[in-house]
Amino acid sequence: MSSVLMFLALFLLSFEASSPASVVPRSILRSINDNNADHPDVALDLNVANFDSVLKETQATYAIVEFFANWCPACRNYKLHYEKVARLFNGPEAVHPGIILMTRVDCALKTNNELCKRFSVDRYPMLLWGPPSKFVAGGWEPKQDKNEIHSIDDGRTADRLLNWINKKMGSSYGLDDKKYENGHLESNVSDAGQIVHAVYDVEEATSTAFDIILEHKMIKSETRASLIKFLQLLVAHHPSKRCRKGSAELLVNFDELLPPDIWSAKKQEFIIVNGKGALKNFQICGKEVPRGNWMFCRGSRNDTRGFSCGLWVLLHSLSVRVEDGESHMAFTAVCEFIHSFFICEECRQHFYEMCSSVSTPFNKTRDFVLWLWSAHNKVNERLMKEESSLGTGDPKYPKFIWPSKQLCPSCFLARSRIDWDRDEVFKFLASYYGKMLLSMHKGNELLGDGGTERVVLAEDLAASINAVVVPLGAALAIAIASCAFGALACFWRSRQKYKKLHHMHTLKNI
Prior knowledge:
Mean pLDDT: 76
Strand content: under 5%
Helix content: 40-55%
CATH architecture of the largest domain: Up-down Bundle
CATH class of the largest domain: Mainly Alpha
Structural class: mainly alpha
Oligomer: single chain
Number of helices: 20
Distance between the termini: 63 Å
């Protein structure tokens, strides 16, 4: 028996050493290993459970799926090459984000057998290329005509794989490309259509804001109410369905996840790390798609735009979605949120001063939308002067009074100076941050619009609410209310009160 085992071991060793696909010059292998030493894997591992959902929801234009087997020596060696290319397109340090989602599926796992059969996997590694939507609930046959999924037959090294991609796309990506060089999105100063990319930046900004709040332990006795009010606004009017759903889950369980008595930073840190639901791992906008890049808000330099731009887009998109009766509550929620949780002190104070100058409540959506637009321009005006004197602005995306005449010619009454037609400005903002922002994503479950919006809200709430505690009929009643944000505020208070009474009743019966 020992001789048989010895023979098998020698055979496997000789196979691994002589397999053509696994033969990699040591100098190249050493270089790739050095490059990977400080970088985690960024190619996304998919399986039968998440394959369709991830590819359905990705913002990328194309996807590459590598089918491999964990026992395959050639696959282990190829992973180094694949990751080197993947770092250009995937992950928080992506050089060219939002273009190609690079993924892998382990066909050695029995749970993935049917998935690998769908795509006629007959060798390892095997790479397929195509629009993400074509992979969803689809398949691939080698001899199938008119299939938008294509086999990559010349990608055995990082260089050859990237050359194949460049030929397919007519691009000129290089393995040495640096972050924010050769940006794939042109300047959005005069192209209104660019706003369709911003729905993902709104998700990114929401996630980043939540991460900052937890990281800096900013939830205190005096800021809890501000966060709750802003979450209610997000649940009712966030343009992304998965952010609405995550906000609802956090909101209805708020007192359990973040008890009212976590006034000390030490206790808050313990609860965030060890408490119910592991709040440190909570993803307010979902975790199906890898995040960490900006599209519409991507600057030409690493230290420009990004989060601040994404947050402005989020606020504008919320403002145009509220109804007349909600406008002042939404205004208050935004002002309190920025004052309580925006870390840039000068920006926070400037915004607070503008909020404090409002003496008359907003009765119309139009009032809130135009106030926020005016406030944004005042911020731009201040930053224009500072960035000009210090040379810290983004040369490709300079600050300017917005919108430009290229974006909205009808917004101006006079040619020689800024004299706004405020009715036209409101129409432009409502369209730009409303329908245009979401136009590219209709049907892929990122939004609910028109008459379906209240139904979507009901689904978001029902997904996060224990049916025993809150009857589904109550959730539906809230969802069809004329002012969803205001109704949510009442609903949240009753929800927390009921949970406390329920808890006390349980204790009595113990």
